[in-house]
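Dear support,

I submitted the protein below through the web form. The confirmation email said the job was done, but the results page showed an empty box. After a refresh the structure appeared. I'm attaching both so you can tell me whether what I see now is the final result or a partial one.
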Amino acid sequence: MEKRVIAGFEAGIKLGALFHQFIGVPVSEKNAELLEKAMESCVKLQPYVVDARVSIDREKLKNVSGFGYTSLSPDMLKARVLVEFEGERVEAILEWDEKIRYPLMKLL
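What the results page shows now:
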């Protein structure tokens, strides 16, 4: 199988795992940066990952519950991962697509 295909598959697995592990976790402006770093750290532990970046939309954290937090939702999350498999590098992104109201992953 072509190395780029394997690298692309691995990137998708990493982003899918990130999404399904963390959606629903409690988040607020107070812990958003810490949560981003924790998510990046978890992805970077996985095989073939060269780099990972995660951002949580702070604007969507401004109107939270009376308890001061909300649950992380798909439209708040943007993630990027760089994967290398046997010398072949691919970069992929997970981000909310407002037009179809769905989180999409794609190779860059």
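Response: this is the final, complete result; the empty box was a page-load delay. The radius of gyration is 15 Å.
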